[in-house]
Amino acid sequence: MTMQIADSVSLSSPEAKARAHAAAARNNLRTEPKAVRIAIITLAILFLSVFVVLPLVLVFAQAFSKGILAYFDALAEPEALAAIKLTLLVAAISVVLNLVFGLVAAWAIAKFEFRGKTFLITLIDLPFSVSPVISGLVFVLLFGAQGYFGGWLRDHDIQILFAVPGIALATTFVTFPFVARALIPLMQEQGTQEEEAAISLGASGLQTFFRVTLPNIKWGVLYGVLLCNARAMGEFGAVSVVSGHIRGETNTMPLLVEILYNEYQFVAAFAIASLLAMLALITLIAKTILERHLDEGHDVNDH
Amino acid sequence: MSAIAARRRTLPGFGLTMGLTLTWLSVIILIPLAGLFLKSLELSPEQFWNILSSRRTLNALRVSFGLAFAAACVNLVMGSIIVWALVRYRFPGRRLFDAIVDVPFALPTAVAGVALTSLFAEKGWLGAPLAALGIKVAFTPLGIFVAMIFIGIPFVVRTVQPVLQDLDPEIEEAAGSLGASRWQTIIRVILPSLAPALLTGLALAFARAVGEYGSVIFIAGNLPNVSEIAPLLIVIRLSEFRYADATAIAVVMLIVSFVVIFAVNRLQRWAQNRVPVH
Amino acid sequence: MTIEVKNLVKKFGSFAALDGVDLKVNDGELLALLGPSGSGKTTLLRIIAGLDWPDSGEVAFNGEDALAQGARERHVGFVFQHYALFRHMSVFENVAFGLRVQPRAVRKDDATIRARVKELLDLVQLDWLADRYPSQLSGGQRQRIALARALAIEPRILLLDEPFGALDAKVRKELRKWLRSLHHEIHVTSIFVTHDQEEALEVANRVVVMDKGRIEQIGSPDDVYETPATAFVHGFIGESIELPIQVEGGVIRLGDRPLRLVADELAPGASKLFVRRHDMLVGPPGSGAFEGAVQHVRNFGPVQRAEVALSGGETIEIDAPRDRELRAGDTISLEPRRYRIFAGT
C-alpha cells in the first residue's frame, strides 16, 4: 500500500515520471531484467567457448606448435598423402552413390502419395541413429572371414573388408540419409504443380526432371552433397572397424590422426586434424551461405 | 476404359524410382542390419544372457547409457540457455556463435577426440588449472562425460531454436496482459510450447552420445569396468574374434536406438497435433 | 473440339469427389464449372486434362477416348490456380517451354520459336516482360503469362483452374473482360473452374453448377439465374430468401399461417420456398402473401436492406428500393414478384 502511494505521489515530478516510463518500458512483456539477460548471454558464450571454440583453436595451435615447416613436413609424409588420397576417393564414391540415391528416393517420396511413406523415411533415417561402430560391425558380419559371404568372397578372391570397397561401403552406410533428407522436405514443399505444368505442355519425364525439377532443387542438392561429403571424409568409427589399419593402404585421414596421436607424434596428428577441421569450417561457412539461398527460394507461385 | 484400370499417376517414374529406392535401401541398410539380427539369433537365450550379464559388458553399458543420459541432461539445460540467448537477445557475435553451435556436427569425431583430450590432459589449457583444483578430467569417466556433452550440443539447440523462433509473440503478450509475471509466462506458457522440441532434443542428444565412439575413446582412458564405453567393447570383442559378444552388445544398443527413434517420431506427431497452425 | 464426359466417378477414400458426372462441351464454347469448394469441379477439370484419373467413366475428345492418353499426349492447355510458372526460367523461357520440349522431329527451329513466343506475349500484352522472372511479376501478370504458356502448344482445349482466384477484386474484373475477348479472338474450346458466381455468369457462354460431386444444372447464365433447377442452385446463385413451408390440400403454410400463394400442381409435404431478396415487394398490411414487422433497416446506395420478422415465425432480409423509406417498427405486407418452390427439406 505504502509503495503505491509513494509511486502516485512521486509521479508529479517530471524526472520521476520519466523514471516510471523507463521502468514500464523495461517491463516489456517479452523480455527479462537486464541482469538476467546478461547472465544468460554470458553463460551461453562461456559454454560454447569452452566446449567448442577452445578445442577448435587447440587443433590449429598444436598443429603449428613446432612451426610452419614442421607442419608442412608432416603433411608431406607419404603416409599422410596416402591417407588424404584414400579419404578423397572414398568420399567421392559415397557422395556419388548417395547423390544418385538421394535424387531417386526424393522423387519417389516427395512427388507421389503412397502408404507407408513415413515408415520409408524412418528407414532412410536409420543410419543417423546407429552407432558408427555398429555400422562397421554389420559389414564385418557380412563380409568377414566368418561372415555370411566370407567363404564365397575368399573362394573368388574378392577383398571387401580391410580394403577400399569395405571402407566405401561403411562410409556410404553412415552418410546414406544426407542427400535424401535434404531434398525430400524441399521437394515436398515445392509440390508437383510445376512438374504437372511441364507434362501438360508435352515434356517427357526426363525433360521435366532435368529442366524443371533439378533447377528448382539445385541448392538443396548442393546442401546435401556438402553435408554428405563432410561426414564421409570425417567418418571414424565405422571406417575404423572395417579398415584393418594397414599403414599407407587402408588408413583414411581420421584413422591416421588416431595412429599418430597414439604414437605421440602430436604435430603430425594435429596437422592432419587441422586439415579435417578446416574442412569442417569450410563446410559450415558454405552451409550458412546455402541456407540463405534455400530461404530465398520459397515458392513464388504460392502468393 | 482399359487405361483406367492401370490407375495411372500423372507424373512418370514412380515405379522405377520407388523400385530403385527400395533396392538400394535394402542393399546398403536393411540387409546388413538384418545380418546383425540374424547373427544374434545364432546365440541361445542363455548365451545371449551370459554375454550381457558379464561384469565387463554390464559396466560398459552402464557407463555408456548413464553418462549419455547425464550429458544429454546437461545439454538440455545449456542448450535451452543458448537457444534463448540466440533467439531472444541481440549481442555482438551472435551470428558467429549461432554458426559455432554446428561445429560438433561438422568436426570429424577423431579430431574432436584428440583436441578434447589435449585440452583436458593434465598439462592441457584447461586440464592444468583443473588439476590444481584436484579435478582430473582426461582418462576418467568425467572425460567421457565432457566428450558426450560436446557432441550433443547441436541436437538440443537445433531442434528447439526453430520452435522458439516461430512461437507466436502474441501468446506471451496475452499472458502478460492477463497479469502473469514474466516467470509465470515462461513456466506456464512458453515452456509447455517448447516441451516436445526439448524432449526431442534430449532424446537425439542421448542417442548420439550412447553410440559415440571417435570423440570419446581418446579421452576415456578405456579402463575396463570403469571408463570403457560399449562401442569400444564391441571393437575389442571384434579384435579378439569374439563375434558373438560383439553382436549381442550391438543388438542391445540397436534396440535402444530404435526405441529412441520411435519415441522421437511419437513426440513429433504429438507436437504437430498440439501446436495450432497459423 | 467437343468434349464428352460420361458417368465419371472419382473417390478419395470414402469421399466421392465425382459421383456420376455427365457433360457435353460444344466446340468453341466457353464453359464455367461453378460450385462451392469440395463440389468436385477442380477434380473434373484435372481429369479432363489428364492430371487425375477417374475410378470409372469415360472422357472423349471429338469422340476419341481421351483416357487412353496421358497428360503429355492430350494436348490440353492447363492454367493452374497458382499459375505453376517455372520459377527459375524467364517469362520468355516459360512461354517457350512447350515448344522446346517437343520431339526433335517436329520441333521448330529457334527463330520460329522466338517469333511464336513474341506473338503470344503480344497477345497477352506483356511483351515488355519477356526477360523478367516470375517472382518479379504481379499476380495478374503471372496469370496472363501462364495463359500464354498454355496457348503456346496450340492446345485443342484450354482449361483454367480458378483463373482469377488469387487476384484482388479490381484486377479480377479487368481480367474477366480480357479473358472473354481473348476467347472471342482465339475461339478454342475452354472450361474454367470458379466458386465465384459473378465470374461464371459474366464470362461464360454456359454455366455448369456442381455440388457434392454431382451436376445440379447446366444452362446459360440467364437460365441458371432466372430458372434455377434445384434448391441448391437457387440458394447458391444470387441472394435468396429460403423459407421452410408445408404444402397441404392446395394450401401453402409457413408455420401455422396459410400463405396467399398459388399451390396448384405442388406435391404435398414439406417443401422450400425461394424468393430473391429484391423480388419481395413491400406493400401496406394485408395486401400481400406475407405479413411482418420491420426490425432493422440499413441503406446500401440505391437499396435499403430490411430485416423483417414474418408472422409465421421466420426472420428474413429483403432488398427494397428507397422510394418508400422503411423504419424499424413498421408493419408491412410482402408480395413475392417471383418465387419457386422445391419439394423436400
Automatic annotation (TrEMBL), chain A:
Ranges of residues in domain ABC transmembrane type-1: 84-285
Q: Name one GO molecular function term.
A: ABC-type sulfate transporter activity
Q: Which PANTHER family match?
A: SULFATE TRANSPORT SYSTEM PERMEASE PROTEIN, SULFATE TRANSPORT SYSTEM PERMEASE PROTEIN CYSW
Task: Relate the protein's function as given in its record.
Answer: Part of the ABC transporter complex CysAWTP (TC 3.A.1.6.1) involved in sulfate/thiosulfate import. Probably responsible for the translocation of the substrate across the membrane.
Which source organism? Answer: Bradyrhizobium cytisi
Indicate whether Transmembrane helix appears among the record's keywords: yes
PROSITE patterns the UniProt entry points to: ABC_TM1 (PS50928)
Q: Where is this protein chiefly located?
A: membrane
| GO cellular component labels | plasma membrane
Which InterPro entries does the record associate with it?
A: CysW_permease, MetI-like, MetI-like_sf, Sulph_transpt2
Subunit details? The complex is composed of two ATP-binding proteins (CysA), two transmembrane proteins (CysT and CysW) and a solute-binding protein (CysP).
Recorded protein name is Sulfate transport system permease protein CysW
Per UniProt, what is one Pfam family of this protein?
Answer: BPD_transp_1
Question: Where in or outside the cell is it found?
Answer: Cell inner membrane
Report TM segments. Answer: 36-61, 81-107, 119-146, 158-180, 266-286
**CDD domains given for it?**
TM_PBP2
Tell me which UniProt keywords the record has, alphabetically: Cell inner membrane, Cell membrane, Membrane, Sulfate transport, Transmembrane, Transmembrane helix, Transport
Per UniProt, what is the membrane topology?
Answer: Multi-pass membrane protein
UniProtKB/TrEMBL annotation, chain C:
Which keywords does this chain's UniProt record carry?
ATP-binding, Cell membrane, Membrane, Nucleotide-binding, Sulfate transport, Translocase, Transport
This protein's superkingdom? Bacteria
State the protein's purpose.
Involved in beta-(1-->2)glucan export. Transmembrane domains (TMD) form a pore in the inner membrane and the ATP-binding domain (NBD) is responsible for energy generation.
Q: Where is the ABC transporter domain?
A: 3-237
Native species: Bradyrhizobium cytisi
Entry keyword ATP-binding: yes
- List the CDD domains hit by this protein, alphabetically: ABC_CysA_sulfate_importer (cd03296)
Q: What is this protein called?
A: Sulfate ABC transporter ATP-binding protein
InterPro entries reported for this sequence: AAA+_ATPase, ABC_SmlMolc_Importer, ABC_transporter-like_ATP-bd, ABC_transporter-like_CS, Mo/tungstate-bd_C_term_dom, P-loop_NTPase, Sulph_transpt1, TOBE-like
An example GO CC term for this entry is: ATP-binding cassette (ABC) transporter complex
Q: Name one GO molecular function term.
A: ABC-type sulfate transporter activity
- Note the NCBIfam families from the entry: 3a0106s01 (TIGR00968)
Q: Which family does it belong to?
A: Belongs to the ABC transporter superfamily.
Q: Does the keyword Metal-binding apply?
A: no
Q: Which Pfam families match?
A: ABC_tran, TOBE_3
